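User: Assemble these into one structure.

Assistant: Restating your components, then the assembled model:
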Amino acid sequence: MNLWQFLLQNHVEVFELTLEHLWLVAISTGLAILVGIPLGILITRQPWLNKPILGSANIIQTIPSLALFGFLLPAPWIGARADRLAILALMLYALLPLIRNTYTGIKGVDPTVVEAGRCMGLTDWQLLFEVELPLALSVIIAGVRVATVMTVGLATIAAAIGAGGLGEYIFRGLAMVNNAVILAGAIPAALMALAADMGFGWLERKLSHH
Amino acid sequence: MEISPHDSAIEFRNVSYRLKSGAELLHNLSLDIRRGETLVLLGRSGSGKTTTLKLINRILTASEGEIRVDGRPLCQWDVIRLRRMMGYVIQDVGLFPHYTVERNIGLVPKIEGWPAKRVQERVHELLQLVGLEPQMASRYPRELSGGQQQRVGVARALAVDPPFLLMDEPFGALDPLTRSELQREFLGLQARLQKTVVFVTHDLREALLLGSRIALLDAGRLVGVHTKAEFNASQDSLVLAYKRAFDTGVGEHS
């Protein structure tokens, strides 16, 4: 059976697994954005937290993904369901590019502009929302882009702990030594990563002020 | 609240400023800035002019001594309120690149809670005041020439009609013709608005043209405060050096 026959015969399942994959990626990246961007802002305000926070995010990245799933297994509530576990692990991996790009983006804002804002009597929050975040936005979006593309790929491994997604086909194909089944998981995942890359790339260019 | 004795708007009393490294950028400065005057801080790079300016709006904090604004010690002011009554204009302008001219000028009024209509009216009034066409309102800073940008910078500083203006070499980066235009317009504006202006420059001609009085700084110390007549008559060696440099200076003629 070749790839096309497989896709035609299983189109409902392919669609379901793609949706499941998309859901894993969206929830975990979304959570990572909610956590990572505030952390990135925090370390521009509290420089002493810079090393511990960026350092931890860095260390998480070095843990092999299968091992991280294993480490999180005994965690209460989280470990009870495979999708929770997968989402937490994927979120942790996505943190680094988000924290780092938020920090770099804000630090990269022209100091003259920041000082002008401060001298005009903007409060710290006004300075953040009126000046720093809008000017750092394209760099932050670049971080979201990297995080999303990375998560699409990593989420295939979530199938190893039974969290579903397109990784199901990849692992099944490996077990069956059937390239068509592997490709049925790998190609939609690759297309998804490509679409995310192009979409966020477009947004990034649109938001750039230079 | 105390009333200051001779209507000094800003008073420096034995103010020193040191870096953490111990280097002293300003030593024992005592200076009165009178209401409605343009006090020029004149000196070479590193003489402490900009430091003095940044102490006034609390971007920097004095290591020793006391600064009073309207008779009230600086530490008793709410820093945000203090800065909003001090328009600030710098050489690099520092316009917000992501905002139109209108939003740049209207930001502080908006934050102060002015109704949108009043902000818009104020922006157009200010554009006229600094000699810009009303259609400039929708432009972005990168679409303006250096001279136009600094006009917007001045308009932005005047947005909420602050009683003070702090200006740090505002015309230093402009070509000589534009600079001389903006200097003349500044004189016209100041004659009408009567702000208390502290103006930093290293250009003696600019100091003599714009200043009611000139405070000469050297290596973090105040050499003297002179009116134009006093400055011209002074036999102080640094004053003489300045006059020599600008009488024979090449390419500085405006």
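The interface with chain B takes residues 110, 112-113, 115-123, 126, 130-131, 134-135, 209-210 of chain A (CB under 8 Å).
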